[in-house]
């Protein structure tokens, strides 16, 4: 850079009064002997005067944009100073991430299409593992069969009888589907006809104890009615009696647990009332506010000469 | 004075107390029976106030018969008599009703069953029992039943039915007139009603009405609602469970969580579910009116007969994956642009008619030709 070029880069700063004393002295000394630089100074002065005459409202984002520009420049300078190796650049490439995701998706898709039975986890979508699919609806079909609509990647209909293990597994799964009380109700309704099977009974007991919908619980209780003398069913009904918030549930539970007691025409006598039930009824007396349930409980307790209170 | 007169209690009979009745041994129990009868005029209203399980049977002639059966376990007859306690039966007339008071004064461990024979000439039977089930097998007139807790089971009732249970199932085989029943909790079933039906389940339970000649109103705090066939409109709501209507002349159904499945003969449909699918089937020749189907999260499927004239306005706000699937070329679907919703499908089928508004926030809208 020759002297004139260097002086002309400083003309703006001279007009703003930003030069040091020594720099200003040097510029003035040069201007005295250089007509071209004096002409340049005049042009610069006119330009400044013209700019000063304009009322410019800076945009609100000007400061933010300026800072962003500054940040970019700093980063660019820093990057230029520390060039990445070709391997680092390769790993850092964004296209590589996208391509990797696409490759994995393709492997999964074509793998499932070409080798559906390979057992690479893809078989999780098969009939034998209903956990990977969702039962959308169940309904009785013709000739005592059952139709189950499954949500998979696409819907399909599975048909068969209750004796079909696949159908039964799907129904047991649907009876616990947390998202749809209607589906659970329909499933429990169909399973009620097969409550003699232990696994079905377990599912009905689960519904009785845990289902959040009273309608489903009442349906499950209907299915368990013939098995009221079985210990696990009595235990579940006792739980209902003590903790179910619906008085209709508690009414039915105590009717079932005490049916035949004190009838005077055979059935259970007071002596036949099991000890567990006595304890449960005593516990019930401490908390029950429904008059019907209380009355039935008290009557059974008095029949066996048991106190209505616990100590 | 008039009020005093109408409130005047005219005792016409006081029967023997239970302790004077014979007590007999039946197995491990002592059983006491009290029974009697009294005449009643035609078209009377009979009211029974009691405590215990009540069974009403069809009687003959002009006599109301009743039998109170009490059973108790006791070591001796004297102990049994003491437990049975007694109590009385009193017949009176109040405000135009013949009132039978059967109030056994017995220990709580005593089981009390009351059987009442009511002649056909009685127009209305009113049963009020503090606690216990009520069963009416066959009666030509109207019934009004109330129990503090216990099942209500009705066979063939010729007139209207009003009932309330503090807790327990309500099952009605047939009623010639309107049905209006409430239970605090438990299932409710009506097989056949000759008039409108209103069922309310305050704390939860399933409701099923197979057939009703008039409109049906069903409310469940939590449970499924199934209406087979309604001669009028159906109004149904549940906080959790599906709603299913086989046929009706207008449907308003709301489920907080569950599917809504409806076949509509005529009238408007207003169906809404917060979470669940809606399946609506319009019947051929149906005289439908403007309708609205709204699914918060779920598919909407409408089956439309090919000859039915209807205008469709469908909005799918699902977002990027919005879908409106139509079998009808008349429905123009405007694809949702990126980040723009809802997707809209609209058009007139067979020249247009009542407006069918379909809206889902998360799901697919299907317009299927039947």
Descriptive report:
The complex is a heterodimer of chains A (311) and B (370). Helices cover 60% and strands 6% of the residues of chain A. With 311 residues, chain A is mainly alpha-helical. Chain A folds into 4 domains: 3-50, no CATH class; 76-115; 136-227, no CATH class; 244-311, no CATH class. In chain A, strands 1-2-3 form a 3-stranded antiparallel sheet. In chain A, helix 13 packs parallel to helix 15 and helix 14 (275-285) packs across helix 15. In chain A, 29% of the residues are buried. Mean pLDDT of chain A is 77; it is low at 116-131 and 264-268. Chain B contains 2 helices and 35 strands. Chain B has an 18-stranded mixed sheet, with no helix packed on it. The longest helix of chain B is centred in the N-terminal third of the chain and has 8 residues, at 77-84. Chain B is elongated. The N and C termini of chain B lie far apart (70 Å). At the A-B interface, helix 9, helix 11, helix 13 and helix 15 of A face strand 3 and strand 6 of B.
The number of distinct β-strands of chain A equals 3
Task: Give the low-confidence spans of chain B.
Answer: 1-19
Number of domains of chain A: 4
SSE order of chain A in H/E notation? Answer: HHHHHHHEEEHHHHHHHH
Percent of residues in helices of chain A comes to 55-70%
First-to-last CA distance of chain A? 106 Å
Key phrases:
heterodimer; A: mainly alpha; 4 domains; 3-stranded antiparallel β-sheet; 15 helices; B: 370 residues; mainly beta; disordered N terminus
What is the gist of this entry?
The complex is a heterodimer of chains A (311) and B (370). Chain A is built from 15 helices and three strands. In chain A, 60% of the residues lie in helices and 6% in strands.
